Amino acid sequence: MVISEASAGGRLTIDLGALKANYRRFAALAARDGAACGAVVKADAYGLGVERVVPALLAAGCRTFFVVQLDEARVVRPLLPDDVSLYVLNGLYPGSAPDYPAIGAIPVLNSLAQAREWAALASARGERLPAALQFDTIMSRLGMPPEEVEAIASEPGFRETIDLKLVMSHLACSEDRDAPANARQLRIFEEAAALFPDVSRSLANSGGTVLGGAFAGDLVRVGIALYGGIPTEHPNFALERVVSLDAKVIQLRTVPPGTGVGYGLTFTTTRETRIATLGLGYADGWLRSLSGRGAAYYGGQRLPILGRVSMDSMAIDVTDLPPVSLHEGDWVELIGPHQSLDEVGAAAGTISYEILTSLGARYHVRVIDEEAA
Ligand SMILES: *Cc1c(COP(=O)(O)O)cnc(C)c1O
């Protein structure tokens, strides 16, 4: 559904020029270490829409994409040229193997059982099928434990049956450059990868790209940083803002001191207060945990959220704005030059990833591309 600016309570601006600039930045960083830069476009490109994000990343030079499940691959594959690779990170769900060749997606095999299932399909079809292998290197999430890695490395016929494109693992603590786990994971990963000396390696996500050249391997897998989220304190993370979010002022009122605001009347005014009601709430992904904690901005002025965020609206204090500066129908900033995606995540007690992937479907969406303009 396309939502007009006039009918929307929120306006989401997606800057594809900034997305491409961020991609090129990480591609250049990876190239210095001899690695390529893949893009993670799972969860509908972190909520921004694969149909707009994937073509922009292709234009910026990306040749490897990652999603997490097959249905996402079904949507992304038709957007890609034949020579561009598409991996499915969560692996072969039971019974799903035959769908992969039909779609043209490459499974990440996360267990010995998955590897054998894939090899059996390849044998049955009489063709070599492509795959990646994921090793579990201390995170205990997805991937083969060391004994399975050894088993598959010495499995008779496996390498002849399977066209092994990539061995990979995932960093548990990449956002913390000082975490001892990073070096430990790198060592465990390199030991396992040494059993497949001719195969490309991939370890780093966004945070991992600044941990040092050894983490880059042959392919980095960048997600959140492409979309403007900064997962680490590292100074190299000056990114361009891809997402801006504005909320519409849908009602203005002035109330006396001692007036309750919102569900539960959790906030009571202590002065005569000018309140603006904004036309979005937690159903739009403006999390309820921002109740009484977050803020909007207008003309550079911070305007605190008063009381609870409702499903479809919330109240902000606009008393300190110059009189008659704000009108019903005006837009105030929620994510933009004065308040970053990461700051919103922190105020909500979560991370930028969750803010992005929670963004709802009721926004008027503006797609801009400064480069193309
Ligand atoms: C989500 C994901 C990524 C991307 O992580 P970011 O922190 O968003 O860069 C990379 N690899 C795997 C396996 C993932 O699940």
Automatic annotation (TrEMBL):
Q: Alanine racemase C-terminal domain: from which residue to which, for each copy?
A: 242-368
Provide a Gene Ontology MF annotation, just one.
Answer: alanine racemase activity
Q: What is its EC number?
A: 5.1.1.1
Q: Which reaction does it catalyse?
A: L-alanine = D-alanine
Question: CDD domains given for it?
Answer: PLPDE_III_AR
Pathway membership, UniProt: Amino-acid biosynthesis; D-alanine biosynthesis; D-alanine from L-alanine: step 1/1
Q: Which Pfam families match?
A: Ala_racemase_C, Ala_racemase_N
Which keywords accompany this UniProt record?
A: Isomerase, Pyridoxal phosphate
Q: Which cofactor does it need?
A: pyridoxal 5'-phosphate
**Active-site residues annotated for this sequence:** K42 (proton acceptor), Y263 (proton acceptor)
Binding sites annotated in the UniProt record for substrate = R141, M311
InterPro entries listed in its UniProt record? Ala_racemase, Ala_racemase/Decarboxylase_C, Ala_racemase_C, Ala_racemase_N, Ala_racemase_pyridoxalP-BS, PLP-binding_barrel
Q: Which PANTHER family match?
A: ALANINE RACEMASE (PTHR30511), ALANINE RACEMASE, CATABOLIC-RELATED (PTHR30511:SF0)
Family statement drawn from the similarity comment of this UniProt entry: Belongs to the alanine racemase family.
Name the job this protein performs. Catalyzes the interconversion of L-alanine and D-alanine. May also act on other amino acids.
| NCBIfam families according to UniProt | alr
Q: What is this protein called?
A: Alanine racemase
Organism per entry: Sphingomonas vulcanisoli
